[in-house]
Design brief:
single chain; Arc Repressor Mutant, subunit A; alpha/beta; Rossmann fold; Tscrpt_reg_LuxR_C; phosphoprotein; six-stranded parallel β-sheet; CheY-like_superfamily; globular; 2 domains
Length: 234
């Protein structure tokens, strides 16, 4: 089950224009960059601001371009995606980072998520899913490819992520915290969770912090995986 969600407003000619999502694309393969950029440029609310071929170029984009989302390849010559994420952790206002990879599950992807990546997508992701993922990431939601495997779940976990273990972990939470965790698992941002549950964003932020502390999850992406494994999205 995909955790990507994209709740589009109903068509309305009087609605205000959608804010533009500024995106940087980083991949050492020119054809891959061009393909991803062309897909994203077809969306009216997404602008591909710039491209880069390696981690050093990615850091320059973040420093100079005011990006909302950075699509980052992991395996690049010179500074790779992992080293880039380590450097981005020092940035005061880093963009949401979505990892692009050809691998379904490996240690590098898990490391990237634990270093603060919003999520990951396989490079052969459907174009519509890529556009939705960028929108979700820009709103602070988690982006997990629907083919996320048990192996990767194990890499991400700081606790047992078998279904029974995850269910037991979640059962210790209050009903309200389980509601918030379920929406994290569905890819909702804090603002969207606040709207769904009729809470303030500051209250939601507090609940998210409480969930991470209670479950031992490193970040909301790991929490989203926990929600899936516990059956909250079934």
């Amino acid at each position: 089950m995909s955790t990507q969600t994209d709740r589009e407003p109903a068509g309305d000619d009087t609605a205000p224009p959608v804010a533009t999502v500024r995106v940087g694309v980083v991949d050492d393969e020119p054809m891959a960059r061009a393909f991803v950029s062309r897909i994203l440029a077809s969306a009216p609310d997404i602008e591909v601001v710039a491209e880069a071929a390696d981690g050093a170029g990615a850091l320059e984009l973040v420093r100079t371009q005011s990006l909302n989302v950075l699509l980052l390849d992991l395996r690049m010559p010179g500074m790779d995606g992992i080293d880039t994420l380590r450097e981005l952790r020092r940035s005061p206002h880093p963009p949401a980072v979505v990892v692009l990879t050809t691998f379904h599950a490996d240690e590098a992807v898990a490391t990237a998520l634990n270093l603060g990546a919003t999520g990951f997508l396989l490079k052969h992701t459907d174009p519509d899913e890529l556009v939705r993922a960028v929108r979700v990431a820009s709103r602070g939601g988690s982006v997990l490819d629907p083919s996320l495997t048990r192996e990767l779940m194990g890499h991400l976990a700081t606790h047992h992520l078998d279904r029974m273990g995850a269910a037991a972990e979640v059962a210790r939470l209050s009903n309200r915290l389980r509601d918030v965790l379920r929406l994290i698992g569905a890819g909702r941002s804090n603002a969207e969770i606040a709207e769904d549950l009729r809470l303030s964003e500051s209250t939601v932020r507090g609940y998210v912090s409480e969930i991470l502390a209670a479950t031992g999850c490193a970040n909301r992406v790991t929490a989203a995986v926990l929600a899936q494994r516990a059956g909250l999205l079934d």
